[in-house]
Amino acid sequence: MHTYIIVGGVAGGAGTAARLRRLDETCRIIMFERGAYISYANCGLPYYAGNTITDRSRLFVITAQEFQQTFNVEVHTEHEVIAIDREANTVTVKNLKDGSEKNCSYDTLVLSPGAAPFKLNVPGADDKAIFPVRSVSDIDAVVAKLQQPNVSNAVVVGGGFIGLEMAENLKERHMQVTVVEALDQVMNVIDYDMAAIIQQHLRDKGVRLIFKDGVKSFSRTDKGLIVKLMSGTELNTDLVILSIGVRPDTAIAQKANLELGRNGAIKVDQYFTTSDPSIKAVGDAIEYPSPISGLPVSVPLAGPANKQARLCADAIVKGTCRPYRGTIATSIAKVFDMAAASTGLTGKQLTHAGIEYVEVVTHAGNHAGYYPGSRNLTAKILFSPVDGKLYGGQVVGYAGVDKRIDVIAAYISKDGTIDDLADFEQAYAPPFSSAKDPVNMLGFIARNHIDGSGKTITWKQISQLKEGNAVLLDVRTEDEHELGAIEGSLNIPHTQLRSRLSEIPADRPVVVYCSVGLRGYVAQRLLLQNGFREVVNLTGGYKTWEVVKEEIKQLQGEYMQKEKESTESAAYDYSRKLDACGLQCPGPIIQLKKEVDRMAAGERILVSATDPGFAKDVRSWCNLTGNRLISFTNDSGGIEAIIEKATALSTTSGNQQVQVKQNPSATLIVFSNDMDKALASFVLANGAAATGQQVTMFFTFWGLSILRKRNPGKVSKDFMGKMFGMMLPKGMDKLSLSKMNMVGMGPLMMKSRMRSKRVDQLSEMFAQAKASGVRFVACQMSMDIMGIKAEELLDGIEIGGVATYMEAAAVSTVNLFI
Ligand code: FAD
User: Mind listing the pLDDT tens digit for each residue in 500-541?
Assistant: First the structure.
């Protein structure tokens, strides 16, 4: 009887054991697992930490006992294989429960010991609040820590997919989370421009990101655990997740003198045979040539480990059957509301392998834009400029990321080309995709590039081309251009191009760009057919450019922040503080305006807020009011901004000279008496008032109900007036929702939700608007028609006609009808 010994009882090990038994009922299979469990879902561990998986038992695919019964495998948990005697074909096994050791003989040994997380060799690294995330016991320890009182801060060291999954799940537990990453981006399985999108999403979700920094030491103080970074920044935390990567867990293989690769991975052939014919190896611990670059790679992913297990068992039992082709490392990770996926090689890996490549990017909807719910995704491929052979693909977005990456992966693993993507026939109906799916679009763009009919360049190449005297041509509309453009670009909307060709120097190369690349391509074709010889289109358009530049700015801002933290620079001094944490939009802006109104010119205030909308609002507010934004940080779920009160009507904001508008105004016509619409109108009115605008709210028809007193006393009315009086809601507390009213349950739920979210109730918003000087005008004509009398209205309401409205509207920059 043949005896198989398997080391490691999770993905690769348990998979091989099960397949061996299915193929050979007569053999003896012994499986040793160092940990307490076999066949558990390591991929689910972060979600258990975040309480998404609430039932711990769901992490176990099968118990040791069930495995033993089902597959007749002798399973020994908490048994570590500590040595291999290749001469004697035996392993030495240590029982971790009692410390005893014994030798076991094998005919074939299968190693699937996986990969172990890197440890940090720095002072204080043995602190009990520093956790790796590899096994169930690791995650049990994290969960136990999270259940202790006053645990609210976490530092995740490493921004790979496990680190980000942990960051998300710690956020789910309402922790303040900081990710420290040594590189300049998260997830190095995708390129910088794709990672930039994920980084912005992480910040939006309140995760602080620190790049190009590493841990120097850990130390304990009475404040908790201090993580000291190389830059000098100190992070005060309650726990640390260490996820700086993994390395093959191959100490026994090394001791047994098996041939290892550069990073300690076990070298195997296409049948998983190691340098010893009696020993096979699979999973995270092996190294095998990449089918794309030919260079040896070890890929720590569950999919390859499971598939290798099956093939390995086949090779053991059936002899040389189907050879292993290698893995192209297709992976995906959920990052809050987004997903980031990758297959094949990244730009950096291709450069490292010395492979020349081109990349193209598309931004498109996950399904037809006209069908509700379409979400944008960004997709990219990297391919050979010669024959279009696909080398890699990356997709980032909110929905449909998985199916796009799987299609690209399928073609890469079959040595496919860009034309395969162009021709790929997807199942199409508007709710699922587009007639030209983003995957097809990538194929089209790439084909145009190779043919020369639509050459593209990347965001990285723009600066080189600018130095080379190229003209940068923005073919978006004037409005889009004004909102933001690449510095030094000439704006000619693509629809005007034919009549304005003379404005473009014909003797210089032209770099065309639009928002995502499509109008750029149209313009490029037009120029090429009108005598312009060298015209290239920015792939991914301004959207990619903007996201990358924003990230680069963030990185620079982060350095400024670090500098601030370590030196307490006087440049960031302030004399007042405003805590607007917990307030929802427009609460923080309103409070800020009140405080700034009380300040002297040149005085500074530090505002803290947790409303994510404040991040954008504070910039806009400063731009509108002319006050100066001195510093801005958005970290650990909180936003901090220092604002300096303007000294004159005209002041500088950032690098730009901002002209403060004299008495800008806004007018809102409130026609509806739906509670949600009334809320929206007061949010806007208060927001506008907070930016210093003179606001007029003109209430007409049903909107008049909002202004009604609850108990106006006796009011004399005609019959129709009485009828309307009975049917219309008596004041703002009695309004219904436009949707989900549910016989009055909806408004109650909405009010309670607003209370829990610390959003002011309608009456409070009204009082706030009044205090900010908002004018309330009731439409005389509507009052007459509906029989509403002046004495029924709240105090301080003006009654006016259309002229009152027109007068206000004439000087307003904003006019809204709600
Ligand atoms: P493992 O599954 O790690 O199993 C190796 C086992 O061998 C371990 O249990 C170890 O205790 C045991 N062992 C080691 N040495 C010995 C010894 N000398 N004696 C006895 N036993 C020993 N991959 C994905 O594709 N998608 C994901 O979403 C994903 N998420 C992940 C999330 C987390 C938190 C982690 C840790 C991994 C994740 N992975 C994911 C990776 C995936 O789990 C691994 O690639 C896969 O489990 C590798 O299988 P393996 O058998 O090689 O190693």
Answer: 999 999 889 999 999 999 999 999 999 999 999 999 999 999
> What's the rounded Cα separation, in Å, for the pair 677 and 673?
7
Q: Where do runs of H (alpha helix) occur along 346-428?
A: 347-352, 401-413, 418-423
In the block, which residue shows the tokens 């009108």?
530
32 lines ligand 1 (CB under 6 A): yes
> What is the model's pLDDT at position 652?
38
Q: If you write DSSP's letter for every residue of 683-744 in order, what string do you get?
A: HHHHHHHHTT-EEEEEE-GGGGGGGB-S--------HHHHHHHHHS-SSGGG-B-SS--TTT
pTM of the model: 0.73
What pLDDT, on a 0 to 100 scale, did the predictor assign at position 110? 98
- From the number of C-beta atoms within 10 Å of its C-beta (0-12, 13-18, 19+), residue 616 rates as exposed
Q: 759: which DSSP letter?
A: P
Which of 112, 241, 252 best tests ligand 1's pocket when mutated (most atoms within 8 Å of CB)?
112
- The whole-number pLDDT of residue 762 equals 85
From the CA of 524, how far away is ligand 1's center (Å)? 50
Distance of CA 488 to the CA centre of its chain: 31
| Alpha carbon of 328 to ligand 1 centroid (Å) | 18
Question: 487 Cβ partners below 8 Å, 6+ apart?
Answer: none
Atom in ligand 1 nearest the alpha carbon of residue 309 = 51
Ligand 1 within 6 A of 542 CB? Answer: no
Burial of 507 (0-12, 13-18, 19+ CB in 10 A): exposed
| Distance from residue 282's CA to the centre of ligand 1 (Å) | 11
